[in-house]
Amino acid sequence: LTRSLTITSGDQSMFEKAQGEKVTLPCTFELSEEDEGPLDIEWVLIPADNQKKEQVIILYAVDKVYNHYYAGLTGRMQFTNLDPRSGDGSLDILNLKASDTGTYQCKVKKAPGVQSKKIQLTVLGK
């Protein structure tokens, strides 16, 4: 039986927070010996408006974090763990704004495995 990459963060896939608060969107994972490629963790924002395309907001690839894709969140988000290779690709979003409401998808890739998990975030007005 081959174990492949699995996302282990629990079943909670909906979060409600007030504006100005911080949220941690969980994305923990386990790798298997089969997975040999470089680790790649990508968080994508899937807009509520289907007319808009999904947007990469933060990416961890080849030991570097790239987080300048999405101006709306610049400076307000970070990986929870400084070293996502530890199996924790969770995302912190600070000082929440109503516009942060949406569906966030964590994609973890390490060849040959790819797994993803969607989390719905609702930011409530004060």
Number of strands: 11
Biggest β-sheet: strands ordered side by side in the sheet: 2-11-10-5-6-7
User: N-to-C SSE series?
Assistant: EEEEEEEEEEE
Rg (CA only) = 15 Å
The CATH architecture category equals: Sandwich
CATH classification class? Mainly Beta
The CA-CA distance between the termini, in Å, is 51 Å
Q: Count of helices?
A: 0
CATH fold group: Immunoglobulin-like
Task: Profile the largest sheet.
Answer: 6 strands, mixed
- % residues in beta strands: 35-45%
> How would you state the average pLDDT, rounded?
90
Helix content: under 10%
Task: Report the structural category.
Answer: mainly beta
Name the CATH superfamily assignment.
Answer: Immunoglobulins
Brief sketch in words of this structure:
Helices cover 0% and strands 44% of the residues. It is an all-beta fold and 126 residues long.
How would you characterize this protein structure?
The chain is mainly beta. The protein has one domain: Immunoglobulins (Immunoglobulin-like). Helices cover 0% and strands 44% of the residues. It contains no helices and 11 strands. It has strands at 6-7, 14-18, 23-25, 29-30, 40-46, 55-61, 64-66, 77-79, 91-93, 102-110, 113-124. The chain has a 6-stranded mixed β-sheet, with no helix packed on it. Strands 3-9-8 form a 3-stranded antiparallel β-sheet, with no helix packed on it. Strands 1-4 form a two-stranded antiparallel ribbon. The model has no long low-confidence stretch (mean pLDDT 90). Its main location: membrane. One of its GO terms (molecular function) is cell adhesion molecule binding. It is a single-pass type I membrane protein. It comes from Mystacornis crossleyi. This is CXAR protein.
